[in-house]
Batch of 4 targets.
Target 1
Amino acid sequence: MSVTSESGREAVLGLVTPGQWFGEASLFAGEPRGNDADAVLESTIAIVPAAAVHRIVDQRPDYLLQFLAMIGQRYRDALDRIDDTVLRPLPARLARVVLQSCERVLATLSPSNPVALQFSQEQAAAMVGASRQSINRVLKQWERQGVVQVGYRSLTVLDPGILRALQHQ
């Protein structure tokens, strides 16, 4: 999910992983969407008409509570990213983005298994408010330390424990 300024500068707001909704803010606010969604992998997307969602939440308040929880989490994530950009150094911000990109895979693997990601340095730069060159410098440093392996539009996380420690610096 991204937004583009009038000058053409893009900021990546977050990644949508399999099974996640997006577009719910404009759905409930009744306003046009404010973000762009670009698929970086082959994807299947289900489009649910607004009227159908409104009927469901009118009849099932528990669904509305689930939507509110999701919107609240996205709001919290956005505030965390703002705090990160202002308060945390680039390696900590990048570590968080990399871990978020592979968190579902990490939950199913043993800690010693490497995690391969399709990873764009340009998108990572847009997510953390840095240049692609700065992202590349950090990744190359991590590669020398054995934390990751950098490939063309790919990144293999070799030691997620170090990234977890780095994200809290």
Target 2
Amino acid sequence: MLLVAGNLVYDWIGGPVEGLTFDTTVWPSHFGAGLGGNGAVTAYAAAYLGAAVRLVTAYGADGHGELCRKRLESAGVECVTPEPPSGETALTMGVFNASGARALLHRPGVLTHALSTVESLRPSASPGTTWLHVANPFNIEALRRSAPRYLREACEDGWTTSLDTGWDRQGEWLTVIGPCLPYLEWLFANEAEARLLTGAADLETAIRQLQNAGASNVVVKCGAAGCLLAEGRSATVAVPAHPVDAVDTTGAGDCFCGGFLAAMLRELDPVEAARIANVCGALSATQAGGTGGLRTWREIQRLAGL
């Protein structure tokens, strides 16, 4: 069982849009509405590819939360909400341009005060779990403080652990992630995040700094260039991307993580998992929104050449 801790968001995403003018209407050729959020999209992708997944998150007692819950359950994700649904589900409205750059408006809703005490993230409350993944602790205030404790307890119980950095709008970066690193078997970050975490301009230097700070293995997501995989102290491996005509990159990094986790849980080796992850991230980018482009495990294996 994979246990994912992270945010659930209802997304409205449209584009391409090259500019917005007030008091006018734009008709984008691509529009997506539905499941979003780092935690929810990662959990959905992993479950869609066959992993047993439990998502610890929070959503509101509204239609958006109910739609997201049903979408997750359709893929086999078990949703755990430590507090009864109340308030408003987190919501993001966004547009993207022809190059894939995005502009987002976000309402955190129930995530503002979510997951302050989460017994379901502790080994004693999660029988059958073998892997804990924290999806962007920056987006849930309580996880900024508590993620190291949950990861430490998971390590002590023999679970595999991982964390996907995400973007920190507060700019604290290593202040939040640093205490997690000694308890991480796998750290995921994109290029910008890896540089901001370390201050290193060179990605190889950034990777080794993160490993020196405690992360056992590091995966840097490089978008259209694929990813860099540093397994232990072995030489960094560049895993090429799966080429697609990208429409919208919203959720692509989360689908990448979900694909990697699903592949590792199927006992593929890390390079094979990275190839699967690259395909998942690429397919996500072929449609507006995070999850609509995903395909079956067999088809993704074929596209990854496995």
Target 3
Amino acid sequence: MMSQLVSTPPMAANEMHPLLRPLPAVPTSGHIFDIDRRLGTVDMDENQGLRIDGIARHIQDAGVDHLVHCEALDTHPHWIVRRTVIDVIRPIAWPAQLRLRRWCSGISPRWCTMRVRIDSDNGGLIDTEGFWIHMNKETMSPSRVQDKFFELMSTTTDEHRLRWKQWLGEPLPHATGARFPLRRTDVDHFGHVTNTAYWHAVHEFAAEAEDLTGGPHRFVLEYNKPIRYGEQLDVHTVGGQDALDLWFAVDGDVRAVAQLRAAP
């Protein structure tokens, strides 16, 4: 059940909230990974458009390909995405050839923000940024990246002391949640629900917010705690004129929060 409430992000004096800021432009120099892909039918919605979970898959696959390209996959194989920002500026429709460019927009020794811009040959444009944490799989804790990797990623950003700051912090609303069944195919090698599985739910509920998706729009998804297969997931939604907010909760414990709003 969706209740009606206007969602307004808190803002400090003389400071624009990150939710309202445009993503940084493509750098003019430095290390930018550039790859072409074809839009597959598996990622199409009923109107032949690239679905939001399909965008998330392209982002994730580009990350792996980028590590391979940098010869860093063996030394940096395990990452967790803490936040994903997806700006759908001009929707991409099938059939299409895609160009993906990926570069670092901020870094610290244990995590980084990675931009991915997706252009299509039929005029589509999607801008994204992810907050990626390098993980030690044995201890399940953040792990330092190698100096060589740090130096390469630093060539496209002056932000070398990146800090985590949560964007979506509203508490779980009183609105009744909708049960969202999980499948075994939703689980990754950490034993957690995959990034793209969250986007399945976002796609499901965003279908009711055509007033927000009719023009350029922004999705933000922040992951707080993992969800494991077998847990009972409820998605709570609050929709208003400015935004649609979603909470992913297990027995009232918020595991992730998402928001849909107009793009900056």
Target 4
Amino acid sequence: MALARVTRQLGDIFDETEWPDLLVGLTLADDAAAWRLDDGRALIATVDFFTPVVDDPYDYGAIAAANALSDIYAMGGQPFLALNLAAMPPELPEEILRGILLGGAEKVREAGAVVAGGHTIDDDEPKFGYAVLGMADPERLGVKSGACAGDQLLLTKPLGVGIITTAFKADQAEPEHLATATEWMKRLNRTAAQALADIERLHAVTDITGFGLLGHAWEVAERSGVRLLLCYGALPFHPGAQRYADELLFPALANSNLADYGDHVRFGPGLEFEQQLLLFTPETSGGLLISLPPDDAERYTRAAAALGQPVWRIGQVLAGVPGIEVV
């Protein structure tokens, strides 16, 4: 996206050699910033907020919290502190604002973290989210640049919430489809991250959010210098997602992601345009995309199952010029 590209250009202002404890900053542009506190601790910092994706205030707050917390989990960290970020119309009834804040606060508490303040401004359209701090082992950061040829690619949540919520806004979504998508959006990536605890070396980890599966997969491919092979038939989708794709109920950002990342993706001849665009569709509070060698992938899958966390094997990592193939 344009803002991401412009932000990365600011790296010229900050010579990161002057800040040797900055482990992840503008130069690497990963899921969150990371600062080494000492040999055993790195501070992880992230921020995320967005407009409502559902009507229920409590659910909106909970989804916004799970989405913001996700970057901490993707970096291999545990969140400990969050700050509210709210832009709300001044005429918004107080009970709605309270519902949003309550949903978010209870989700932060579920994560074992605390809401300690925040900032609110007036705005015509509601926007809500969090700035979040977490702690991680500096030697075990989950970054996008470590995928290796031979790795397996794992995904920890189904795809399709972006198109389902767009269909909902157009009064085209079935209530049960929205309900299922909402529950998954509220689900923390906590157990998905916990299952990585016994993996000695994390290769590559990211979470699937606004750039869609293929946008975030391209970041892994580019920064790791590898090709990713994805199997469309192995991808998990929320009920209704493929139907709404056939009905072309895509959000505008799906086409933006296609424009930004489409040149890096090659599709098999059997995949229709609607199936292709579905993989560029933004996700809200999506799952983790993890690259691990086969033995570790098997170990991770077993550990996740013991925690009640589903995992889907969706492809593999190949040597070659960075890019993505979907077959």
